[in-house]
Here is the input.
Amino acid sequence: GQKSTLFAQLEQESGFDPNAVSPTGVRGISQFTTATAKQYGVIFGDSAQAVESQIAGQAKFMKDLYNQFDGNMDKALAGYNAGGAYVAKASQEYGEHKRCPNKTITS
Here is the structure.
């Protein structure tokens, strides 16, 4: 079956390890910075309560990013990894990525 976005994020971010710590310092099953964890009421650790708080925080954070980017899931996911402010700034500076239709070139 198809994985939910949140499930796939947990798999990608931490491999479902509640004690994961990345080289950039984000940690936990949902890979939060300390500041974002505080903002979303996340508790670090591997207790059931901590893991539940991290997953709930992940869902709230993704909902906020999804709303911030007007329903654009790609930008919401990018914002989760790079920071919403960074993605918004990059979108303003570099514009939206537009896909060009395939064209057949004949000579």
User: Anything to note?
Assistant: The radius of gyration is 17 Å. The chain is about 55% helix and 0% strand.
